[in-house]
Amino acid sequence: MQTDGPAPDRTPASRRSGGFSRRSFLKGASIAAVGGPAGAAATAGGAILTDAPRDTGTIPAGQLREIALRVNGVERRVAVETRTTLLDALRDGLDLTGTKKVCDRGACGACTVLVDGQPTNSCLMLAHDAVGREITTIEGLASDAALHPVQQAFVEHDALQCGFCTPGFVMSAVACLGKHGKPSPATLRHELAGNICRCGTYGRIFAAVQDAAGRAGR
């Protein structure tokens, strides 16, 4: 026989101990999902915890420092954060976008520039560490509207496809020829081992660099 009044709570006593039950948890979770703020989470008792603000990548103006970089024979000033890499300073601060940002972890060589004549992965070097050094990028190789011999050889041998790796290969090749003059095929492969061409144009790249070495010797 039915009687008036609320239905009895059949939740086991073990789940109601301490004032917490499965029903109260679900109720609190539902409230948080429907009416809680974005990014909030519900606790077991139904309270709402708001996530801490996330780092959006924005650098406060107070953290920027102006430094002088000598790039392609010209001293230029750029505002950077202490953690800014030379790669980002060149591309974002000085608008020298010929240096490519590909892997950003020193694995592909696409961001290679010359620092005091030495091939360097600019994604692994802090901009602050480049102060007082002589930096050469792909934009600094040509002179008087004439391409550098290595650049010209790359064009003639069609030693590129997508082009992302090309500036890094050219810079490494320039350093190689400056060091070895006319390198052997084995030496050339060793010196360019830090550069990766995902398109697989290695044969044409090596032929272009050897051609450029031959021209320099004449």
What does this structure look like?
- By secondary structure, the protein is of the alpha+beta class.
- The chain folds into two domains: 63-140, Beta-grasp domain (Ubiquitin-like (UB roll)); 142-218, DNA polymerase, domain 1 (Orthogonal Bundle).
- The chain is 33% helix and 14% strand.
- It has helices spanning 13-16, 22-35, 86-93, 149-156, 166-180, 185-191, 202-217, and strands at residues 40-42, 48-50, 65-71, 74-80, 112-115, 118-121, 134-136.
- The strands form two sheets. The protein has a five-stranded mixed sheet with strand order 4-3-7-5-6, sandwiched between helices. Strands 1-2 form a two-stranded antiparallel ribbon.
- It is globular.
- Mean pLDDT is 83; it is low at 32-56.
Could you list the spans in which at least 5 consecutive residues all have pLDDT below 50? 32-56
- CATH homologous group name of the largest domain: Beta-grasp domain
Structural class: alpha+beta
CA-CA gap between termini: 112 Å
- Compute the number of helices: 7
The average pLDDT value, as a whole number, equals: 83
Give the CATH architecture of the largest domain: Roll
How many E strands? 7
CATH topology of the largest domain: Ubiquitin-like (UB roll)
Report strand %.
5-15%
Overall 3D shape: globular
- H-E order: HHEEEEHEEEHHHH
Question: Quick one: CATH class of the largest domain?
Answer: Alpha Beta
- What number of domains? 2
Largest sheet: 5 strands, mixed
**Share of residues in helices:** 25-40%
